[in-house]
Amino acid sequence: MDVQLLQDSWWPMWRDAILGTIPLALISFALGLVLALGVALLRLSSRRLLSGIGRVYVSIIRGTPLLVQLFVIFYGLPTIGVTIDPWPSAVVAFSLNVGGYAAEVIRAAILSVPTGQWEAGYVVGMSHARTLRRIILPQAARVSVPPLSNTFISLVKDSSLASLILVTELFRKAQEIAASTTEFLLIYAEAAVIYWIICTVLSFGQDRIEKKLEQYV
Amino acid sequence: MSEPLMSARGIHKSFGDNHVLRGVDLDVRPGQVVALIGPSGSGKTTMLRSLNGLEMPDAGTLAFDGGPEIDFSRPVPAAQRFAARDRSAMVFQHHNLFPHKTVLQNVTEGPVQVRKVPRAEAEARATDLLARVGLAEKRDAYPRELSGGQQQRVGIVRALALQPDLLLFDEPTSALDPELVGEVLHVMKSLADEGWTMVVVTHELQFAREVADEVLFLDGGVVAERGAPAQLFTHPREERTKQFLHRILRPLD
Ligand SMILES: Nc1ncnc2c1ncn2[C@@H]1O[C@H](COP(=O)(O)OP(=O)(O)O)[C@@H](O)[C@H]1O
Ligand SMILES: [Mg+2]
């Protein structure tokens, strides 16, 4: 085993994980959550048209591969004159993707809050919107933390797909080093270890958050 | 006799094929306590919810202070609906306290967020009210840290803090362990003594007998009998009232 190569590639890969993979996942996740809340509310709307739009959106996102979504945005859109740089392309694709998956989580969480909570909101004089914001969403947020943190961990791993649209991140760096050294097994195994460390830390954090939240139900 | 504070006439409500309310009249005068009794499924909850807009009746009218009537057989404008809703406050069977808010926040949520009462003022008033039901030291607790009876007392205080003209109670003690029922009924009795106007759905016949000014026996979606408690409980006129009272008072017979 080439210990020297292992040492030489360890920090460059971490560097691109910290400057590429992690911010890409964080920003996409944050934007995706905002979108997901909107889509969840559309799906819960009593207006047929609105809930239909929400349903179609979720269906398209969940029914197509993320890699294909990424290619449509980065390689497809320039054909009709919309050219987006690699980084923003990846953010758009991942946000849209999280928007579809997290919408279902948020929708289920909102539905899990007992109707009595809505009614109590109305009785103290609140409108539908205010009851949603002050009474329902805080309770739904607690329920959705465990599934949403799973979504986030998946996103960290899926962000490696961005290497295919030339985004500088952990896996792209691995590909570059592997190509120039031809040490494919060593370098890709090393990349896998780095992903594994990041995800393990995240799921450790997830456990702690869940334990904390359990005290509140 | 004084003018009714609230007057409901000919309330009808169906859920699908289930015609639950079939023309119920209910008048409440200021300071009066009306008890609504009747078998399970007779429409008591539905009637109570119709009085404050949680349920939209299919027909009938509702008026406050002899003012303009809401006619349920026509579409009710939201403004009218909210105006009617804000006259009353409901205490639920399962308290429905906000689990993510403290006792104090539960009580001040309506006054501060909706009525725009300054927070300090709302908190001072909430603290007073909590003290009156013996829960002053629980103001910073969360609902899950309270017993069922304490939760229900907070539910009552949350309703009082809205300063409604009319308090609506939907079987506030029926989900409680027997030994906790008394503390809640005590609070309700003291509210009645203070002159609050109340409509109470209850199976606590002793409470109805001692506290109510009028008792309505609801059966099959109609008021089968109404009268002063002394009369209705001791000399019910209707056969079905007799049978109902008998079932509650002597369940083993
Ligand atoms: N939201 C609803 N949807 C469908 N049926 C309902 C609903 N609420 C009440 N009902 C029905 O209306 C009838 C009367 O219910 P309710 O008013 O709760 O009776 P009570 O409080 O006297 O026990 C019952 O048959 C019940 O199943
Ligand atoms: Mg009921």
Automatic annotation (TrEMBL), chain A:
Q: Which UniProt keywords apply?
A: Amino-acid transport, Cell membrane, Membrane, Transmembrane, Transmembrane helix, Transport
Whether rRNA processing counts among this entry's keywords is: no
Give the signal peptide as a residue range, or say none if absent: none
Q: Does the keyword Acetylation apply?
A: no
Q: Which coarse location class applies to the principal site listed for this UniProt protein?
A: membrane
Q: Where are the transmembrane segments?
A: 20-44, 56-77, 185-205
Q: Which residues form the ABC transmembrane type-1 domain?
A: 18-206
Matching entries from Pfam families are given as:
BPD_transp_1 (PF00528)
Instruction: Specify the superkingdom.
Output: Bacteria
Entry's family note? Belongs to the binding-protein-dependent transport system permease family.
Q: Spell out the protein name for this chain.
A: Amino acid ABC transporter membrane protein (PAAT family)
Source organism:
Isoptericola halotolerans
Q: What is the lineage of its organism?
A: Bacteria, Bacillati, Actinomycetota, Actinomycetes, Micrococcales
From TrEMBL, chain B:
Listed CDD domains: ABC_HisP_GlnQ
Principal subcellular localisation of the protein: membrane
Q: What is the lineage of its organism?
A: Bacteria, Bacillati, Actinomycetota, Actinomycetes, Micrococcales
Family matches, as Pfam families: ABC_tran
Q: What is this protein called?
A: Cystine transport system ATP-binding protein
Q: Does the keyword Ribonucleoprotein apply?
A: no
Matching Gene3D superfamilies: P-loop containing nucleotide triphosphate hydrolases
Record organism: Isoptericola halotolerans
Q: How does it sit in the membrane?
A: Peripheral membrane protein
Gene Ontology molecular function, alphabetical:
ATP binding
**Segments forming domain ABC transporter:** 6-245
Subcellular location per UniProt equals: Cell membrane
List UniProt keywords, sorted A-Z. Answer: ATP-binding, Cell membrane, Membrane, Nucleotide-binding, Transport
PROSITE patterns hit by this protein = ABC_TRANSPORTER_1 (PS00211), ABC_TRANSPORTER_2 (PS50893)
